[in-house]
């Protein structure tokens, strides 16, 4: 059975206890349930129904430098309503990463998106009244995302049950739970240059009493509908027992086992990036019967190299100037031509006749493109002709400039004269 709860929400209010450096985070949410599981018609896409829900994260630690005066405390209703989905989670261990960002998302007008699913871990013997929630949190505009696993806590002598979920409620009408595992990443996408090494961050934390003796890490990548495994690692969480097993499908990929054990750092290093490394990476952390994921997008870029066929142009009837933009990635490069006459202060788009070559693809996946410009003989000497290449990897377009020269008769005669003298000189010497 898979019950999905979606929180499309923003932080409602926060209660802070300055002395303890902790605060309560209250997320106002939307509960989306699988309609089929409840014999209901879906309220929208795919047979899911939506209803409001609230997630209260208790005792989230906050930095001492935070100003929390404007925050209002979370006060449970005096008359608990079992119809409300009010999930309360204690998060003192493990701590929620980037909680200060969550706390301030509301003030900054950023939307917090939180998705929650109720699940039954694999082969667990089901304890009555015990449930597990998977929550994923992200903040609009901030490059972080977090997955939490919540386990419900035992309620002593429950007087009420939540109507939809059937779970016992605390005195204040909440479903009590604790965070037992967190998987998080401080970036959602990484853009890295070809041939360099890059790091895809993925971190985890678990509660004090370990969920299992070892951690299993799997990195997969998906690109254009195809998925493959990048790396798999299993390592004991206690250094004394067992051996680390690592299997890298992509050569030059690695996860540092020491960092995994000491820091919960399961970040993936990819050495010498190739175009084929691009894709959506999924980091799955499994401890015992629990697993949680993070998704990170990897984009590969390579700056174009720009060159012109000539830097000085002496115009004839069919002078062509060629601009090469070579070895770039991704494909979207644009070549534009500009000119600036000797008297002009501003450049203008060149109105000559241009033609583009077709894109050439190299063995390493990069592209090249050339643009040919026919320069009319009427262009005044001293005019600068610029080829400008724009590419997503460039903040400012790259450019190369050629200058139109006088067809200088003086130097022509000078060279000719020099040649005649040389010939005469040798003629004399040979005799
Ligand atoms: C995580 O480990 C990698 C090495 O695998 C290291 O480069 C990186 O700095 C570590 N990240 C943190 C946050 O410690």
Q: Specify the helix fraction band.
A: under 10%
What is the structural class? mainly beta
Spans with pLDDT under 50 lasting ≥5 residues?
Answer: 1-13, 38-45
Lateral arrangement of strands in the main beta sheet: 1-2-3-4-8-7-6-5
Q: Please work out how many helical segments DSSP would assign.
A: 3
Structure description:
- The chain is mainly beta and 431 residues long.
- The protein contains 3 helices and 28 strands.
- The chain has helices spanning 99-105, 257-263, 409-430, and strands spanning 3-17, 22-34, 48-61, 85-90, 112-119, 132-139, 145-152, 175-185, 189-193, 198-200, 203-206, 214-223, 226-236, 245-248, 253-254, 268-270, 279-287, 290-301, 305-308, 312-314, 319-328, 334-340, 348-349, 353-356, 360-361, 367-375, 384-390, 398-405.
- It has an 8-stranded mixed barrel. A 6-stranded mixed beta sheet has the order 9-18-17-12-13-14, with helices on one face. Strands 19, 21, 24, 25 and 26 form a 5-stranded antiparallel beta sheet that branches.
- A hairpin with a 5-residue loop joins strand 6 (132-139) and strand 7 (145-152).
- The longest helix is centred in the last third of the chain and has 22 residues, at 409-430.
- Bound molecules: 2-acetamido-2-deoxy-beta-D-glucopyranose.
- Residues 199, 256, 259, 263, 265, 267, 269 line the site of 2-acetamido-2-deoxy-beta-D-glucopyranose (NAG).
């Amino acid at each position: 059975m898979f019950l999905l709860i979606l929180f499309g929400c923003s932080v409602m209010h926060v209660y802070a206890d300055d002395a303890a450096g902790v605060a309560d985070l209250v997320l106002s949410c939307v509960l989306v349930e699988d309609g089929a599981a409840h014999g209901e018609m879906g309220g929208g896409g795919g047979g899911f129904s939506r209803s409001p829900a609230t997630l209260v994260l208790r005792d989230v630690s906050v930095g001492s430098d935070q100003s929390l005066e404007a925050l209002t405390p979370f006060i449970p209703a005096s008359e608990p309503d079992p119809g409300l989905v009010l999930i309360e989670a204690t998060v003192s261990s493990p701590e929620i990463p980037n909680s200060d960002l969550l706390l301030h998302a509301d003030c900054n007008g950023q939307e917090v998106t939180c998705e929650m699913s109720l699940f039954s871990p694999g082969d667990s013997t089901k304890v009555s009244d015990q449930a597990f929630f998977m929550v994923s949190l992200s903040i609009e505009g901030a490059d972080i995302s977090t997955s939490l696993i919540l386990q419900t806590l035992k309620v002593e002598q429950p007087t009420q049950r939540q109507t939809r979920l059937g779970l016992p409620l605390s005195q204040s009408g909440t479903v009590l739970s604790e965070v037992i595992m967190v998987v998080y990443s401080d970036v959602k996408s990484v853009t890295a240059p070809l041939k360099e090494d890059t790091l895809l961050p993925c971190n985890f934390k678990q509660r004090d009493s370990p969920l299992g003796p070892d951690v299993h890490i799997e990195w997969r990548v998906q690109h254009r509908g195809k998925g493959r495994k990048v790396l798999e690692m299993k390592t004991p969480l206690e250094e004394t027992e067992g051996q680390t097993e690592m299997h890298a499908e992509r050569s030059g990929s690695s996860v540092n086992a020491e960092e995994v054990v000491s820091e919960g750092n399961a970040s993936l290093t990819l050495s010498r990036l190739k175009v084929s490394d691009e894709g959506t990476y999924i980091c799955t952390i499994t401890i015992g019967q629990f697993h949680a994921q993070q998704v990170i997008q990897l984009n590969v870029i390579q700056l174009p190299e720009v060159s012109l066929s000539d830097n000085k142009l002496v115009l004839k009837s069919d002078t062509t100037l060629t601009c090469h933009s070579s070895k770039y990635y991704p494909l979207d490069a644009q070549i534009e031509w500009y000119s600036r006459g000797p008297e002009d202060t501003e450049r203008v788009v060149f109105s000559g006749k241009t033609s583009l070559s077709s894109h050439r693809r190299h063995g390493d996946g990069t592209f090249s493109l050339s643009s040919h410009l026919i320069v009319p003989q009427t262009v005044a000497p001293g005019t600068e002709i610029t080829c400008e290449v724009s590419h997503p990897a460039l903040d400012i377009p790259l450019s190369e400039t050629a200058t139109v020269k006088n067809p200088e008769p003086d130097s022509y005669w000078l060279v000719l004269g020099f040649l005649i003298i040389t010939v005469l000189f040798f003629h004399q010497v040979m005799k």
